[in-house]
Amino acid sequence: MIFSRDYIGYLARRTVKHLIDAKMITTSDLKGVEARVHTGLVEELSLEDRINEEVRVILDAYSEEMRKSGAQYAEMFKKVKTELTKKYKAVL
């Protein structure tokens, strides 16, 4: 993940504060809303990490074939990642 968990917590608090100040939301459970926003941010920001891990698993399964055909790991990583990004409709 490109951000630390502390910074994501800060972003969640600031986001909730901004939404409340702009009167876009109201809440009686500020900490609960902040926790849910934090969880959502962590899930979204860790999506690329999960996709990268899935690409590694796929390429490990085909490593012998890649070696025989002379395919470059970096090229294949990029191609598989692009396909998975499309599959999950992610924006990275």
Question: Can you give a write-up of this model?
Answer:
It is a single chain. The chain is mostly helical. The chain has 2 domains: 5-45, no CATH class; 47-87, no CATH class. The protein has 5 helices and no strands. The mean pLDDT is 95.
Shape from CA axes?
Answer: rod-shaped
Radius of gyration: 19 Å
**Main β-sheet, in a few words?**
none
N- to C-terminal distance: 12 Å
Helix content: over 70%
Residue-averaged pLDDT: 95
Structural class: mainly alpha
Percent in strands: under 5%
Total beta strands = 0
The unreliable regions are: none
Q: Count of helical segments?
A: 5
Total number of domains: 2
Report the order of strands and helices: HHHHH
Short note summarizing the structure:
By secondary structure, this protein is mainly α.
Topology:
Blueprint: H1 5-21, H2 30-45, H3 47-61, H4 63-69, H5 73-87
